[in-house]
Design brief:
Elements lengths: L1 H32 L20 E8 L8 E8 L4 E6 L5 H8 L7 E6 L2 E2 L5 H7 E4 L10 H6 L7 H10 L3 H5 L18 H15 L3 E5 L7 H15 L3 E5 L11 E6 L2 E6 L1 H7 L2 H13 L1
Parallel strand pairs: 3-8, 3-9, 6-7, 7-8
Antiparallel strand pairs: 1-2, 1-4, 4-5, 9-10
Helix pairs in contact: 5-7, 7-8, 9-10
Bound molecules: adenosine-5'-triphosphate.
Length: about 290
Amino acid sequence: MLQLYMPLHFLGFVYREIKNALADMEKMFRLLDENREIQDAAGAPTLAVGNAAVSFQHVSFGYDPERQILFDVSFDIPAGHTVAVVGASGAGKSTLSRLLFRFYDVTAGGIFINGQDLRHVTQQSLRAAIGIVPQDTVLFNDSIFYNIAYGRPDATRDEVIAAARSAHIHDFIGALPQGYDTVVGERGLKLSGGEKQRVAIARAILKDPAILIFDEATSALDSHSERAIQDELRAIARDRTTLIIAHRLSTVVEAEQILVMDQGRVIERGSHRELLAAQGRYAQMWALQQQEQV
Ligand code: ATP
């Protein structure tokens, strides 16, 4: 009986491993698929970035031709400055970050970095210039070291550790029995939302991009983690052109410019103080959030 059981048990193991590997491949292809329709223009030059100024000019967009998501959105992020976007769920906030990364092309208007239209430069140079801290970070089934170094694969161990320190995740990693060699992801150590976002912040620090997109996690973190992540964000956003997609108003209070979006349109813009004084939608959202916290 044992003679039969062992090979069957082994086959079961092999089957599970192959299935998991295929699931990973599928995820990878899905990520790539989002991009397949976007092609470089023939002879496109690389994007020239030093200090990057970002400009959305009369941008309209829909994922499907029948359903428009963004309507005539215009705003500028001067080099080294921060713009934050707030608004109800589904207003189109994260769509702005997908367009800046050129996962999709705009249907009207244009997006420019230092005056260069995104459609006229190579995707490789564009993506090298932008670091994203997404809402929900996908971790590879690999070591924490690999997951951070993914931001810049040629990084040395010391550089990875320095990035982890700046993202305040080094001590956490150091306390794990296998340290930076600990395997994380679906089949490894599961990290909390806050820890995953710190890995993404470390990746972005290591990449050292001219432009940073921070898509705040929708799921609520405890207030201690939230404050810590906001401090880390402030540190890496300094002197970098930053777009923050915010789900909590506490994140945007210090932004130089806040855009309030509603159903694909920018309906208000200004600093926190200006928007409160205007007593419009932002002021309502702020009052509501203050009440919720009481
Ligand atoms: P949230 O605060 O909930 O993250 P959001 O303001 O970031 O929302 P978006 O993610 O930009 O909203 O989505 C705007 C609209 O576009 C939504 O109605 C959503 O259903 C739609 N949408 C988003 N992604 C896709 C997609 N890949 N294909 C089709 N429609 C999409």
